[in-house]
Write a structure and sequence with these properties.
Strand content: 15-25%
CATH class of the largest domain: Alpha Beta
Shape: globular
Distance between the termini: 35 Å
Largest sheet: 6 strands, parallel
CATH superfamily of the largest domain: Glycogen Phosphorylase B
Radius of gyration: 21 Å
Strand order of the largest sheet: 2-1-3-4-5-6
Helix content: 40-55%
Number of helices: 13
Number of domains: 2
Order of helices and strands: EHEHEHEHHEHEEHEEHEHEHEHHH
Structural class: alpha/beta
Length: 367
């Protein structure tokens, strides 16, 4: 484990990063940074059960866990159910002997699988483990009211265990280009970046439909840059105004794509997206890049309007119409707002704010 161990009574328990995809690796890196900035202990584990048992022996009174990076409750076999059940029982033991536990929920893995693939072979066993996990913790940090109310009602978890963090923080260690984006003049196009994982069939379907609808409109004023894992799977959809990049590291993404773009695009692939914002939304703003979001993505549309960081559109025609009349003064204004929110996202503002609320709740309950 890198860094000097703190004497704090609070420990952030994190998984080893090498088994995860790029987005989760970045999230773990960010949480490590934010926890160390707050003076908390940071522990990386190889055996989660051993880590929890160690939590009984060490003086840390409060344990912070990212979910589902730690203890993903999606079950793929009966044997795995037994292993995770044992781990949950150890966690419940820690709870009964006075350890206070906070989980930072950035995804709902069971719902994510169901919305993406339509089914989950061991859904009932997965639900048992997830309910036991939620019952065994003191405070649950979630994106928004929908995620809190849904989880509370489905599993019968007390609503007062939830704290909302609103936006996913991102990129504490990633440098941001100081370049000012040039406003498109004369016949130059607006450049819009779309970064995602194209291995998801629903993602591919959504972006293909978006491209084809835009192509039917006056598409000359918009250039799309598509970047992400397995982007080659949509090459047959590419038009002259679309550029495709393979998956890039966060640093290269900023250098080669975001610094050359005027906006970052977020599309609503399924109803699951309403449970929160996305890592791509945070990565755009981290790079001081304003966003364009469809109004059907209700939660993200509200955030865009609240912070004034981009354009909310009905369809591609509406987006192109709004870009045609967007003035340089208006673009500078939303760029400044994007930069302000991006600073907060880089600094871990939303995680830290929610965590302080969680600690306050624990203190009040202990009185």
């Amino acid at each position: 484990m890198a860094g000097k161990e703190s004497d704090s009574i609070i420990t952030c328990t994190l998984p080893e990063k090498n088994t995860f995809g790029s987005a989760t690796r970045q999230l773990i890196t960010d949480l490590e940074t934010y926890c160390r900035e707050l003076g908390f202990n940071v522990e990386f584990y190889k055996s989660l059960s051993r880590s929890f048992l160690k939590g009984f022996l060490i003086r840390s009174h409060i344990i912070i866990l990212p979910y589902p990076a730690i203890l993903n409750t999606v079950i793929t076999s009966s044997f795995q159910f037994i292993i995770k059940l044992i781990t949950i029982l150890i966690l419940r033991f820690l709870y009964t002997v006075g350890r206070r536990i906070i989980i930072y929920v950035y995804d709902l893995p069971i719902e994510q699988n169901l919305f993406t693939w339509g089914n989950l072979k061991y859904e009932k066993l997965s639900r048992i483990i997830e309910k036991m996990l939620l019952d065994a913790v003191d405070v649950i940090l979630v994106f928004n009211e929908l995620m809190a109310s849904y989880t509370s009602k489905y599993y019968g978890v007390r609503r007062d265990k939830f704290v909302l963090f609103e936006v996913l923080d991102y990129g504490a260690d990633i440098k941001v280009s100081a370049q000012n984006r040039a406003f498109p003049m004369d016949d130059k196009s607006w450049v819009i970046a779309y970064a995602t994982n194209f291995s998801n069939p629903k993602v591919r379907k959504t972006i293909k439909e978006f491209i084809m609808r835009c192509y039917e409109e006056d598409y000359g004023k918009v250039k799309l840059i598509l970047v992400g894992k397995e982007s080659s799977m949509i090459l047959n959809t590419v038009t002259p105004n679309v550029i495709v990049f393979d998956e890039l590291s966060p640093e290269k993404l900023e250098e080669k794509v975001y610094s050359q773009s005027h906006f970052g695009l977020v599309l609503k692939v399924s109803q699951y997206y309403e449970f929160g914002s996305t890592s791509k939304f945070s990565s755009y703003l981290h790079a001081n890049l304003p966003v364009v979001v469809p109004e059907e993505y209700v939660y993200l549309s509200k955030l865009v309007k609240k912070y004034g960081v981009g354009i909310v559109f009905k369809d591609c025609k509406d987006l192109i119409d709004k870009l045609k009349v967007l003035t340089q003064e208006e673009y500078v204004k939303i760029s400044i707002s994007a930069k302000r929110l991006g600073i907060k996202i880089r600094q871990g503002y939303f995680f830290k704010k929610a965590l302080f609320q969680a600690l306050k709740l624990l203190y009040q309950r202990a009185k």
